Amino acid sequence: MFTLLKKLLSVLVLIGLSAIATADDIDIVESGSLKDANILFIMDLSGSMNWSLTDEDEPDGSDPSRLQVLRDAFQAIIADQDFNETNFGLSVFSGDAIDDDGKGVAHGIVFPVNPV
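RESULT FIELD:
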């Protein structure tokens, strides 16, 4: 009985400590500063990213692909002066992505979080 009580107390202490050491994404925004923030972008490079935004077909030329929208947004964030002192990293994943040479695209962290 004593060991069960001891284990239960240990779990409660760990839960209490974990609540103290957590932070939400919103904490960065509410702090008013992105200085020294670490942001890891995870980009989806799967085949569905070649589809249009509205359906599961390739864009007809008038609409950008999902990947183009993602690239444009990523470039805008990197160029934004508000992120000058923010550390960025890049990770990619896909089930079937290939590069222009027909080689498979690697998964995982491409660029570790570092100052830009």
